[in-house]
Amino acid sequence: MSILQTLILLSFLLSASHAAVQDFCVADLSAPEGPTGYSCKKVSAVTVNDFVFSGLGVAGNTSNLIKAAATPAFVTQFPGLNGLGLSLVRLDMAPGGVIPLHTHPGGSEVILVLEGSICAGFISSSANTTLNKGDSMIFPRGLLHFQLNAAKVPALAFVSFSSPSPGLQILDFALFANNFPSELVEATTFLDDAQVKKLKGILGGTG
Amino acid sequence: MSILQTLILLSFLLSASHAAVQDFCVADLSAPEGPTGYSCKKVSAVTVNDFVFSGLGVAGNTSNLIKAAATPAFVTQFPGLNGLGLSLVRLDMAPGGVIPLHTHPGGSEVILVLEGSICAGFISSSANTTLNKGDSMIFPRGLLHFQLNAAKVPALAFVSFSSPSPGLQILDFALFANNFPSELVEATTFLDDAQVKKLKGILGGTG
Amino acid sequence: MSILQTLILLSFLLSASHAAVQDFCVADLSAPEGPTGYSCKKVSAVTVNDFVFSGLGVAGNTSNLIKAAATPAFVTQFPGLNGLGLSLVRLDMAPGGVIPLHTHPGGSEVILVLEGSICAGFISSSANTTLNKGDSMIFPRGLLHFQLNAAKVPALAFVSFSSPSPGLQILDFALFANNFPSELVEATTFLDDAQVKKLKGILGGTG
Amino acid sequence: MSILQTLILLSFLLSASHAAVQDFCVADLSAPEGPTGYSCKKVSAVTVNDFVFSGLGVAGNTSNLIKAAATPAFVTQFPGLNGLGLSLVRLDMAPGGVIPLHTHPGGSEVILVLEGSICAGFISSSANTTLNKGDSMIFPRGLLHFQLNAAKVPALAFVSFSSPSPGLQILDFALFANNFPSELVEATTFLDDAQVKKLKGILGGTG
Amino acid sequence: MSILQTLILLSFLLSASHAAVQDFCVADLSAPEGPTGYSCKKVSAVTVNDFVFSGLGVAGNTSNLIKAAATPAFVTQFPGLNGLGLSLVRLDMAPGGVIPLHTHPGGSEVILVLEGSICAGFISSSANTTLNKGDSMIFPRGLLHFQLNAAKVPALAFVSFSSPSPGLQILDFALFANNFPSELVEATTFLDDAQVKKLKGILGGTG
Amino acid sequence: MSILQTLILLSFLLSASHAAVQDFCVADLSAPEGPTGYSCKKVSAVTVNDFVFSGLGVAGNTSNLIKAAATPAFVTQFPGLNGLGLSLVRLDMAPGGVIPLHTHPGGSEVILVLEGSICAGFISSSANTTLNKGDSMIFPRGLLHFQLNAAKVPALAFVSFSSPSPGLQILDFALFANNFPSELVEATTFLDDAQVKKLKGILGGTG
């Protein structure tokens, strides 16, 4: 028996491992999803394209009121991330741009500033600071944080998460874009009635 | 572009997070179940009722030989618990009531006594003690434990588990309500033949 | 050799398991803490008191502005919870009492109402509803939620968490009790300057 | 710069990884232990001996009443297992030998019979069967199970666990070798008083 | 109400736990697979045969060039292992037999030598040594390792993994049995062109 | 009682959460390390600098034989990453630069190309492709992979890992920079003696 035949025998194991959960589990977004992620696409249907994502190369459009854009590469955009405990977001921020206070309930984050500078912080230890090109900063899972471009030049950053779908809860959206009665929002935030109604109006909330 | 439009753009992320495993994964009890829980119900079919369970408000019927009743809110009763690492049980115990020795193979437990008093313990460190109203006690995963109402008044307690389906193995049921031959039970427990046959008779075991 | 001697031999294993991480790991609050919890107290120093906590039997004082009190049994109060993936809080709410919007970055929650009624909700799916005695409701990890007693009678609830230290981030405290400049808070929340300064004043924030 | 120098540069990473938790974490049994295992021995003190254990080559002494011996290679005997999610036990069973009903609260098990035959089972699905040489069987975490050599020749088996310290709770020891009052054991097991006192006597229990 | 009836009531919980993920989750190999394993077979269809595997009793055929055979009991061969964090492999090695350098990306390993002797090692700390009958050795997840029978007698070993599907990447297969251009292999390994082409030829690689 | 006083009471919980494992656990590199990471630095000693790392802003020196440089931000360089399941590496590659075949035993990876183009691939499914600016690609935990700059311009990429210390095993270093006897390397890789000795010579291996 040749070494070729022998290793072909051994390769039954290798083939088995192709189907194994440990090697990779590209999300089949149309199949059942469980607490730890999506079902795996059949290995026979997986191609190299499942491992590659090209959506982060183009700057997001920052011609909006917050002068910022976040382009996600979560598992729903990049199915190859399923089960790997990782995802990415591209952050473009014009001068004066802001990513308002928000949390990611499902994962921790590390930001890396590639161009310009960003004032960023998370609340818990009141850790806020200005990050310049090449600086990175952590935002632990579930804590309120923000990014703000206080400089006169555009900023670019990339953000990594410890989950393929870290989630996102933007504070303003949570407080004012819902259909909770204003009284309820006021009672649970101590904000004034006029303030709540003003932002409900802007953000499309009712009640 | 208005702030409304801008935040609507941002809300694509928010919408995406609605479908995320991290926000919630209400069990679809009819869909495939995996090692870490049930498949998630489609978000579009989820209602506020999936997050609420009303079965623990009524006392269980303790008019039975053990004078005790356990009312579960596991994932099969309360599908909203799926993937959250939590479940509850209501415990009603008449005077003299007992929850016989048992284990939960799938989760740790903490009991909180709300009315009356309960003698409880787990075996490992032979930790047993009497718990009064307001007392709580832990029972680590997989260890034999019991609860017993030695007082003259009814007792009420609530139990929390670290898993949506902690499992339950009641010792007497395990030993005597099965179809193992009596000889096998005797050989593996050192119990006397008469004892085994007596309890097999009472508990409906055969063999 | 007697069965006693034999089982004493077997008990070396049992003794070994006494020291095992799986049986229990009572927190030694003075020893190093790692990402998954505190170091374990020496087994020889563990007593039954480490497994029992009596702090939840007394109503918290609700004679305060929010007319509510939360009494925790986290790992720092109840070291026996270390490593078990569980903790508890007692919630007392006078009529009109409110637990303002907050998140638990480190764990999911299930509330169980034992007396009175509580209006509760979490934001993501805008799931809010009124819970009556015996009702339970989930609040997934990291999502903003609140509890409010809109009834004319006191309410009592117990809350279970999927972590020995779920953490707590109260929105108002996060926004207004820090030393972030008001401009920063305004830029990242879209709240008005007067609103921010008013609440900073009340809550002791500076800047 | 030579390739040697270059790779020496790269090796800073490699060296860093030597100290990394992922490569290995040999238990320092004298240092703090946490919920997920022991502290790691300093890499500079680790030798090849930490990765090897020679205690399973010798048959255990089965000249005892249960005619069986279990020789463990848990993390306390084999510190290299720390953090790896694995451990082993050697099982020697003379004819008629029995490993009485027990559970492992901290890990699942798979047995592999190498000599003779063993009748084994776990309770839940009442799964019991006779295993012959070459057969393997699973025992899920926390479920009561037993092994019994009903054949006329010695049996040898090796057991693997999914944890470096799976724990062990032998039912008879748990029930009768403690200092719980007999009445308590009887009330929580439905066993007869005579039965409880007899086995308490044999197993050295008091009370 | 008889104790029988009472325990039958209690057994609703027990029945519930039969369906629980914690008791067992036998793989349904035809149903969706997720990042943590296969979907569970319906409990009603599970038989004792799902918990037993008989494939490791027969020596593998070592009449091949590497003079060795590995017989796996991974989840695809032994569905009862699903979700349990365990699997096994039987290793038969004739004199001179070798299991070439390989890794298991998905799990750690412990080998136990039952007959003969095996020279084994893993690379990281350059831990290699000769194992004799009864010796066990760990190979941490993802590190390159090998086994080699340098003795004059056959060797038999059993290997346990910390995962039901640990995967397998055999170095030679990875480097030479693929369709990567030889230039690419050479550039990323520093191996000589002749060496790469020779082994590509033997192992059936192209390019 | 003022709202200030009330919230100060509530803030005991908040303060407790400051010390909680869930908020953050900055590595104390001098304290014990366990299987899941380093001990946490005392909260009172933590400053905003612990959350920020500035080492990735400067290009690595690619004036070496592999014409590439990898600058890590693992937990040992950036202690704030401890327990967060994340780390980063900066990759600078001159034209012709190569990161030779390697694995990360402890974590999965996603690369994002920011300048130039990189030919990258992992072996398992033989997934290799050319990545251009803005492209990202996954490399699942433990699988052999490489990066190569086949273009005429420098390339810059950032790499994220799903672990604070993913580890690194460079194939050439593993095979040739150790003190294994050449015969052993040859027997377990099928490489020719001359090839092994040549690379042992270059890479400083002995034996």
Automatic annotation (TrEMBL), chains A, B, C, D, E, F:
**Example of a GO MF term:** manganese ion binding
* Signal peptide region: 1-19
The source's superkingdom equals Eukaryota
Q: At which positions is Mn(2+) bound?
A: H102, H104, E109, H145
Keyword line:
Apoplast, Disulfide bond, Glycoprotein, Manganese, Metal-binding, Secreted, Signal
Q: Which residues form the Cupin type-1 domain?
A: 54-197
Subcellular location(s) per record:
Secreted, Extracellular space, Apoplast
GO annotation, cellular component aspect: apoplast; extracellular matrix
Keyword rRNA processing attached: no
Q: In terms of one coarse class, where is the protein primarily found?
A: secreted
Pfam families from the xrefs? Answer: Cupin_1
The SS bond pairs are: C25-C40
Binding residues for oxalate = H104, E109
The UniProt entry's sequence similarity note says:
Belongs to the germin family.
From the Swiss-Prot or TrEMBL record, give the protein name.
Answer: Germin-like protein
Q: Which organism is it from?
A: Eucalyptus grandis
